[in-house]
Fold this sequence. Notes:
37% of the residues lie in helices and 15% in strands. The chain has eleven helices and eleven strands. The strands form three sheets. The chain has a five-stranded parallel β-sheet with strand order 9-8-7-10-11, with helices on one face. The protein has a four-stranded parallel β-sheet with strand order 4-3-5-6, with helices on both faces. Strands 1-2 form a two-stranded antiparallel sheet. It starts with 5 loop residues before the first strand and ends in a 10-residue tail after the last helix. 47% of the residues are buried. It binds phosphoric acid mono(formamide)ester. The site of phosphoric acid mono(formamide)ester has 9 residues, from helix 2.
Amino acid sequence: MGTAPAVNGRRRHLLDLDDCSRGEIESILDETGRMRDRMALQPARVPELSGKLVATVFAEASTRTRVSFEAGAKMLGADVMHQDPGTERVESLVNQGRTLQAMGVDALVVRHSASGASGLLARELERTSVVNAGDGTHAHPTQALLDLHTARERLGELQGRRLVIVGDVLHSRVARSAIWGFGRMGADVVLSGPPALMPELVPERTGGAGRDDGRVSIEPDLDRAIVGADLVMALRLQTERHQGSAVPGVREYVRRWQVNAARMSLAGPQALLMHPGPMNDMVEVDDALPYGARSLITEQVTNGIAVRMAVLRRLLGATSDGDAL
Ligand code: CP
């Protein structure tokens, strides 16, 4: 979550999961479960954040993240507005943030193409909470939290589980935050995909950053990486971020790294499939899988609303269990 200062023992911003303890993550996931239960009630809306103003500023396209933040904030009784950023220049984003803060915005949900844009805003704003909804290739913490919640709902304890993340890891903010989050929860993470799209692993991560953290490793050959996996997370091929030819062509990518039924059977009979979306049809995942029995993709989307409710409640001071972030 970066170096964001706390207010009365409560964290003000959510920028990444890199400085989140396992206890903090578990606490958010527990609260996400309570929000999921509440979503099933009629009426689901409660006025806990009545009088709070949440603004979304998305300088990159989004379907899931923006809508789920807005839907979650409304379910909690907050007023919500969307600010068209107009330009992707970071200076302009900071000025917009200051302006929105002066108007009394309590939480600013930001997506930007520049890595670090949300952190920059968080350092500049004295009163408004900043939530990183995806910054360049850096981080997407609420996606990682919803992935963790979805996995935990199905698998229970994540300690010792094996997560294979396959595809364009190098350009994926989803993967970076998932590596932190799943690793902190004790899962071993194996990265697979075209060698040109694999990150460099710093030595302390390969053994886990903390005592109980899972290990992170790279195995470019998916048929080897996937054996024994509990979870397989396919990533979108982000060709818009590639410089030059990072993959040998889509047909070759599909042949070597597409997740299909044969590869899922290598993983094991209980292995589950995830994809953060949006998906390139018939590229990362075979058409037969996304809505099949082993897929968590629809569940991920629904859980997105609950996790964003949990995060907004905590940052804006409406926790149900009193835990400080
Ligand atoms: N996973 C994700 O961030 O999706 P959107 O781009 O649709 O928000």
